[in-house]
Amino acid sequence: MTKDLLQTFDIHFDNELAHDYYGDGKKLAENLREIYHDRNLKFPDVFDSTLTTPPVHFISYDSHLLLEVLEKEKLIRFCSVEAPDDVKIEELQNVEVPPGLHVDIIDFQME
User: Fold this and answer.
1) Which top-rank group of organisms is this from (predicted)?
2) Which residue, 17, 57, 96, 101, could crosslink 47 as a Cys pair with Cβ 3.0–4.6 Å?
3) Is residue 85 included in any domain, yes or no?
4) Strand order across the 7-13 sheet
């Protein structure tokens, strides 16, 4: 069984060089899959883009799209990641992310 996470994954790049390295769309999704390879997460391949430089990428999740653009930073926020039922958000938050890329997982579930 899998579930849609009720969290958002905020992906920040340190700079345009990091953005070029980690990529957009499918390339970014592949990098995220590699980072979380042992967690069995399913990331979407398709991102929409703004016309800013660097661009902001996002995917539509019905009317629940959460998108925020921070000054002097690139931020991608999406909430349609699938995970196994037994996933622990704290473990995902503690996964080591490579230099130049920052993944913040914000948990919206109340226990």
Assistant:
1) Eukaryota
2) 57
3) yes
4) 74-78, 7-13, 101-107
